[in-house]
Design goal:
About 60% of the residues lie in helices and about 15% in strands. With about 170 residues, the protein is α+β, with helices and mostly antiparallel strands. Strands 1-2-3 form a three-stranded antiparallel β-sheet, covered by helices on one side. The longest helix is centred in the middle third of the chain and has 73 residues.
Length: about 170
């Protein structure tokens, strides 16, 4: 007896375990239940795939079993592989989303910290100006390159302060 059963299974393009249950039916028929199980697929939807049941005589099953199961089993295998790939990509997308949220939150905190430092430095300059210490106030006004969002306001403030401690005019106040 030379059967090519296992050679036929080896030719199939499947990922997972092939489960066969063979039962004897009435009138010398056999009932063959074939189901593919892929333990690597994490999606519970794989459990909705029902076994493929074929009924026939031994001769009929010898002739047409693999022709009938090959396409559906390979399709089920591809589906389970795709479900697992989908779950992995979904998990990766969630990680990326969390990373992007974290990055945006960090940028927001950094901007708030820079704005707070800018306001503190400007308040110190205002305080020194009120005390009549215009040169010191000018020195406390931050560098425009450190705060590009406020560069124009910084230049204007420095200009106002420098006007107050500039050398007096030969012709008096204008």
């Amino acid at each position: 007896m030379n059967a090519n059963f296992f050679s036929q299974i080896a030719k199939m393009d499947i990922t997972g375990d092939l489960h066969l249950i063979i039962s004897k039916g009435a009138d010398d028929t056999l009932i063959v239940s074939t189901q593919l199980n892929n333990e690597h697929c994490g999606d519970d939807a794989k459990n909705c795939i029902v076994p493929l049941n074929l009924k026939g005589t031994a001769a009929e099953l010898d002739e047409g079993y693999f022709e009938r199961i090959a396409a559906p089993i390979e399709k089920a295998s591809g589906l389970m592989v795709n479900m697992e790939a989908f779950l992995k990509q979904l998990e990766e997308a969630q990680k990326q989303s969390a990373m992007e949220k974290e990055k945006a939150e960090k940028e927001r905190r950094d901007k708030e910290a820079r704005d707070k430092k800018y306001k503190e430095e400007m308040a110190k300059a205002d305080e020194l100006e009120k005390e009549g210490k215009h040169r010191e106030a000018w020195m406390k006004v931050p560098d425009p390159t450190e705060y590009p969002d406020h560069a124009e306001a910084i230049r204007k403030r420095k200009s106002q302060l420098s006007d107050k401690f500039a050398s007096p005019s030969l012709f008096g106040a204008e």
